[in-house]
Write a structure and sequence with these properties.
50% of the residues lie in helices and 7% in strands. By secondary structure, the chain is an alpha/beta fold. A hairpin with a 2-residue loop joins strand 1 and strand 2. Helix 2 packs across helix 11, helix 6 runs parallel beside helix 9 and helix 13 packs across helix 16.
Length: 536
């Protein structure tokens, strides 16, 4: 019995080993099959991708496109970073030769909507002022200031474009970017496609977005949504899309700041490897004239936003803003500036770059990288050192005068480096006045009036829950400026303004004004419009 049992036991062990071996071989075969299927799937995707490219399906991802012997900005260059319904075009029309001549001074300017002059006419942006100033300062040289500005982009997009820019033999790359880090592509508060905050994963997503397959899938999803909602109103691009609140000290705030630092560092490394000089410009925003969009709870009791309660609500942006107004009224300019800066940094809707971003820019200006401190220049030009509406149109976009100031400060840095960078022979006295440059750029009273109506519309639609008093006063002031400047226009220009609905629009804005301004502005509008036959 014992021998029989032992024999049976040994047979069972052998049988189990055979089954284990067979199972192992089966698993190996299954693994190999899966691997082969994966390789075959990837190969199929590669074939499809190559086929789509060969057929020219989908827009080019290149920043520049060839036209004859020149390059110009590809309008579709940034399309892949946005959903179909919110796609941003690259509007720049600057051209430059594919083969650069020896005497050409070539400067690329990278950034977002500030580079487009928004909300003022595009020709009034600082790259255009800089082009004219350089032509005056260096009359013996051919000047190329290539404006690569695209609305709503951020440092991720600039990093993606860096290699292409560096390949075009720039004498200087100017960077003015950082306001859109939270709300632009891949930002923590972006209204666009976002699959995570890890920078490595984001860069993988960016590579996938370069494929034509990704483009076709995005288009298919968009048109499927249109088909499923045929009567739905087309979504509009604007500040109303930004809804997520991010508070100072949040993990998302720290991640965004760190990603900006890393993106900038990688971009500068690319330029340094290519031997391209880079100038980093610090960022400017409206401190005194722009009330924070959102404040962190808890909120103070109604009517209690006074300087005395700032210690009780240290994270409430609105309280710090009110403190700034109070301190300024008491002639405490230094204390007011600190409070306004704190209000900007605590604004939970991050449309304005907060203090850490300018700190990063200053820290990055090493190893030959220039720093153009526009924040300091604007403070020096602002009353009592507090930047407000005279330099910034709304929350962060400079006024036309602000753009002129930016160009003058950039030019000053170029002049300081003329021996190594721009050559000899500059005569600063040849520079023209602000008014003269405005005339050369085609910016006069008609353009100011039309742009001011656009600004009023933008401010009127700012995504506040309750419209603050500072905004009410700003709107009334802008309407008063319109009524003051309209008589300076010709009848044909006023008629064009009326045909665009300008008077009707102003009448609506006046109806919303406070009692103290409504009657006065309405009477002024009536006095102006009625004799001309443009009674709103």
């Amino acid at each position: 019995m014992w021998c029989s049992f032992g024999h049976f036991y040994h047979l069972s062990v052998i049988d189990n080993k055979v089954k284990t071996v067979r199972r192992g071989k089966g698993n190996a075969v299954q693994a190999l099959s899966r691997a082969l299927a994966l390789v075959a799937g990837l190969l199929l995707l590669v074939i499809v991708e190559l086929g789509l490219r060969a057929l020219g399906i989908g827009p080019s991802n290149d920043l520049f496109m060839a036209e004859g012997g020149d390059y110009r900005l590809n309008p579709q260059a940034a399309r892949r970073f946005f959903p179909h319904q919110y796609a941003r075009l690259a509007p720049g029309q600057d051209r430059f030769a594919q083969d650069k001549d020896e005497g050409v001074l070539r400067i690329f300017v990278l950034g977002a909507s500030t580079l487009l002059g928004f909300p003022n006419p595009a020709q009034t942006s600082f790259p255009n002022f800089l082009q004219l100033m350089l032509e005056d300062a260096y009359p013996g040289r051919e000047i190329e200031v290539i404006n690569c500005g695209i609305t709503a982009i951020n440092s991720y997009v600039l990093l993606d474009f860096a290699e292409e820019v560096a390949a075009q033999e720039p004498d200087l790359v100017l960077i003015y970017a950082g306001h859109n880090e939270f709300v632009g592509p891949y930002g923590a508060a972006t209204p666009f496609v976002r699959l995570g905050s890890d920078r490595s994963f984001i860069k993988l997503q960016m590579r996938l977005q370069r494929t034509r397959i990704y483009y076709l899938l995005g288009e298919a999803l968009y048109y499927a949504g249109q088909w499923l909602r045929p009567d739905g109103q087309a979504p509009s691009f604007g500040l109303h899309l930004v809804q997520r609140e991010i508070y100072w000290g949040d993990a998302a705030h720290a991640e965004t700041t760190a990603n900006y630092r890393d993106n900038l560092s990688e971009l500068l490394a690319i330029m340094r490897t290519r031997g391209v000089p880079v100038a980093l410009c610090t960022l400017v925003s409206n401190l005194e004239g722009f009330y924070p969009l959102r404040s962190q709870e808890p909120a103070p009791p109604a009517g209690a936003e006074r300087a005395e309660i700032v210690n009780d609500y240290p994270h409430h942006a609105g309280v710090h803003f009110a403190t700034g107004l109070d301190r300024k009224a008491r002639a405490d300019a230094k204390g007011a500036l600190e409070a306004f800066k704190r209000a900007r940094d605590l604004d939970a809707i991050h449309l304005r770059a907060c203090a850490p971003f300018n700190n990063i820019l200053r820290e990055s200006a090493v190893d030959g990288v220039w720093l153009i401190d526009l924040e300091r220049a604007f403070a020096a030009a602002a009353p009592e050192g507090i930047v407000g509406d005279e330099l910034i149109s709304e929350y962060l976009h400079p006024t036309v005068w602000g753009h002129y100031l930016m160009a003058r400060n950039i030019l000053a840095q170029i002049v300081q480096r003329e021996e190594a960078f721009a050559g000899e022979g500059v005569d600063p006295d040849v520079l023209k006045s602000f008014a003269q440059y405005c005339r050369r750029l085609g910016y006069g009273v008609q353009q100011r009036v039309l742009a001011r109506n656009d600004l009023i519309l933008l401010l009127r639609n700012m995504p506040y829950r309750d419209r603050p008093q500072v905004l009410e006063e700003r709107l009334s002031g802008l309407v008063a400026e319109q009524l003051s400047e309209l008589p300076k226009m010709s009848y044909a220009q006023i008629e064009d303004f009326a045909g665009r609905g300008g008077f009707v629009f102003l009448a609506k804005v006046i109806e919303e004004a406070g009692d103290g301004n409504r009657q006065r502005l309405a009477a002024q509008l009536m006095t102006l419009a009625q004799p001309l036959g443009f009674m709103p």
